[in-house]
Structure formats: structure tokens, C-alpha cells
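Attaching the record inline, Q. Sequence:
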Amino acid sequence: MNIRNLPLALTCVALLAGCATKDYVNEQVAGVNKRMDGQQADTDTKLGKTASLYQGLENRVNSQQSSLDSQKTAIEGASRTAQEALERANAAGELAAGKFLYEASFSSEVTFGPDASKLSDDMKKALDAFVTQLKAANKNVFIEIQGHTDSRGTPVANLALGQTRAEAVRRYLAMEGGIALHRMSVISYGETAPVASNMNRAGRAQNRRVTLVVLQ
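Structure, as predicted:
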């Protein structure tokens, strides 16, 4: 090779080497970008799944909160004795959901006279209607039957009378209404939970009652 041409040859070699290096770098950069794009896609997919799971969890929490709020509203609208019935049922493990549904109260206008526990025909009709409503709803429920009295008589006697009234209703619901006995319990409040004044005849009549608290 002519010595004069040596610098030109070296320059060409350097240029070729530079081109090769540039192509190599471009290939490496392209590979890195491709891997980064793939990783970003995987990350986006995972973030999307996480967001979806979070949204589903949030929806379930909101649904449960709504259910709790509805239950709280229903309980707040219930009587003191109905709330106590729910607490007893939950403590005894009687219920799966622990939810108050409603209460039905039958006063002496259709049931008991003073010192009486025998069911009148009107009371039986009212209980028949209650059973029809219960079966139409087709829900797995638990019923607490509460017996009440007016304030005449001694507290001990009234407690016993309230118990007798509640037992009479439970027996009728089981024998005539076909309600399973293990789905019902009885308790007597005697004269301790009046809904009206015991100072007059009309008020005492309202206090001589049986209340059915329906729980689920």
C-alpha cells in the first residue's frame, strides 16, 4: 500500500467502526425500549387489575354499609322491646343475619280482657292474618312472642300473666299456623313496658297485649 494512502485507509476504517458501533448501540437501545414497553404494559395491566379489585372491594364495602345503615334505621324505628329481642337472639345464636324485620302488636281490643289469657276469635283471626303474611314473605325468620299486662295486680302476678298470654299465642301459631316451635320463643314483660297510660281504661286496654317481633 502506498504510504500516502495510509491516512485515508485509516479514516475509512474508523468510519466503518463508528457506523458499526452506532448500529450496535441503536440495536441495544431498541431492545431496551422494547423491554421497557413490555414492562410498562405489564405494569399497566397489573395496575388495571388492582384498580378493578379495589373498585370491587369498595362496592362491597359500600353495599355492606348501606345494609348496615338500613338495618340501623329499622332498629332505631323499633320499640325498646324489639331491640332487646334482637340482642337476645344474637346472643343466643338464634339468627344467621341478626336483622330486625318488623313487629306486630295485638292489644286487648282483639285479644285479652283483664286477667285473661284465652284467645278470642278476633285474636285468632289476627294471628291467622299474621301467619298468611309471614308465609307469603317466604323468609327464614325467628319470632319472639312478648306478653304484656296493665299495671293492675302485683308485679309478680303480672309477670306470670304476661307469660301465659305469650305461651297461648305460641301454641296457637304452632298448632294452627304451622310455625315450627324452635322458630319461636316467649318472654313476659308483665307491666314493665306500657305503650299507654295505665291511669285510664283505654290505656290499660292497650297495655294488655302480645307483641310479635319478627327477626331474620
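The chain is about 60% helix and 10% strand. The helical segments are 6-76, 80-92, 121-137, 155-175, 201-207.

More tomorrow.
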